[in-house]
Amino acid sequence: MKRKIVILLLSIPFLFSCCSGKKTTETTVNKPNKEHTLTDNDFTRYHIFDATFSKTKYHKCMGMTADCPDKCGNSGEYANFEITRYKKFDGKGEGGSQKLETYQKQISDFNKKRFNDESVRIIESLKPGDQVEIQVNYIYDTRLTTVQTVENLISIRKL
């Protein structure tokens, strides 16, 4: 009987940690480990492609967690691109292993406050139909305690 109670008491913190509903990248568990820096071995794929800017569209997250839709980080305006030509597609691993047909970049938060980022300033200057070159890296980030693939927009430039 005592053994069952001990097992039950030890499992309660685990149950609550699994049900928080927060994105794992925002928790203290997944903060980068300062001792490890990214190397070429951490890159799984990189994509360089030409794309046509189509529009920006507001997306409201309906993930149904306690933070959705206004605090989860997934609601906001997204810039949408149609990929017209791949220039480079290389790497190893599973993350980002398929060629993309479309690409989206979040440019604002839930309250439509634009992110302070050079890529957002470039996107704001685009009109539908404008051509751009985009470079995206997918990194198998081993600096996090829970290793995961992270998408990074490296560059965007108007052609």
Could you list some keywords that capture this structure?
5 strands; 159 residues; alpha+beta; single chain
Distance between the termini: 71 Å
- How would you name the oligomeric state of the polypeptide chains in this document? single chain
State the share of residues found in helices, binned by percent.
10-25%
Strand-pairing-aware structural class: alpha+beta
Q: What order do the strands of the largest sheet run in, or round the barrel if closed?
A: 3-2-1-4-5
Q: Which blocks of ≥5 consecutive residues have pLDDT under 50? A: 11-36
Count of helices? Answer: 2
Largest sheet: 5 strands, antiparallel
Instruction: Give a count of the beta strands, DSSP E runs of length 2 or more.
Output: 5
Query: Strand share of the residues?
Result: 35-45%
Helix/strand order: HEEEHEE
Describe the model.
The protein has helices spanning 2-18, 118-124, and strands spanning 43-59, 76-91, 102-106, 131-141, 148-158. The protein has 159 residues and is α+β, with helices and mostly antiparallel strands. A five-stranded antiparallel beta sheet has the order 3-2-1-4-5. Residues 11-36 have low confidence and may be disordered.
Can you describe this structure in just a few lines?
This protein has helices spanning 2-18, 118-124; strands spanning 43-59, 76-91, 102-106, 131-141, 148-158. With 159 residues, the chain is α+β, with helices and mostly antiparallel strands. The protein is globular.
Task: Please render the helix and strand layout as text.
Layout: H1 2-18, E1 43-59, E2 76-91, E3 102-106, H2 118-124, E4 131-141, E5 148-158
Antiparallel strand pairs: 1-2, 1-4, 2-3, 4-5
